Amino acid sequence: MSALRNYAGHCADHELFGYDMRGLVKHHEPMAPHTSWRVGGPADRYFEPADRQDLIDFVHTLSPGEPVLWIGLGSNLLVRDGGVRGTVICLHGALDKLELRNGSPSPGVIHAEAGVHCARLAKFAQQHQRAGLGFMAGIPGTVGGALAMNAGAWGGETWPNVIEAEVLLRGGRAEWWAAKAFTWDYRHVELPRNVLGFLAARFQVDHDADGAHERYTKEALARRKATQPVGKPSAGSTFRNPPNDHAARLIESCGLKGHRIGGAEVSTHHANFIITNDGARAADVEALILHVQRVVQEKTGAELQPEVRIVGETVSGGPGRA
Hints:
With 322 residues, this protein is an alpha+beta fold. The chain is 23% helix and 27% strand. Strands 6, 7, 8, 11, 12 and 15 form a six-stranded antiparallel beta sheet that branches. The protein is globular, with a radius of gyration of 20 Å. 45% of the residues are buried.
């Protein structure tokens, strides 16, 4: 893409895109405003679809080899300071349909598009007296992101509740696949290379006859507020929990709470959260991740694996120093 022009709202340049675009395209768009850490260099091209059909039409215009980064709220993502080559597609703000299927009988089905915030899904289930998705209140991302990584919180995780999911393939074809077509485990989902990302999912939910789900959701939100650095720029949990242990416990046991590299800091509120302060760079966050991994392994023998996805290119100078 050689034209360095921004398109907002209706895009009438049919020679460039070949269809009546209704979404937003930007070139050299900084990724910091689109990630929860508030850091990250520019994307070559950034697209926010107006709706599901606009997204499908846009994807149809991409060349088969175009690198594509598919994001929601950018809450499980670190974009390096050198930015992202190719195209970033952001679903938050579009694909926000959320509805209860099968009426009132139990069990029911909730249909949620990929751009729906997980907390909104949990609240929706609570309002409709449906149980099984209360843990979603603790996930700071979208349904699409939760599907992509089998996100979870407080003992619950995404995929055990999924009946089927809609994927978008390269070339712009959308297909519904049964849950059994996907291979998933703890914080990981295997996707075929021709799948760009998720468009929607249908979740099995039971009737919350005695109000237990409503109480659980409220308790989960209160626990999140009390134990996590809510309101601080972070990506949620930085590391996966090792088998039979907790990353936060290991990090705290090594005296790393409050440790800083540049503008990145291990939260004093929750040791498995890295927060960013004013002036932080992605390189600071990445350097702090590596430092925590190194110290924890040296002192405890445990190998912490990042839960966050790190993408993009570095800039000269590399990560910050411990």
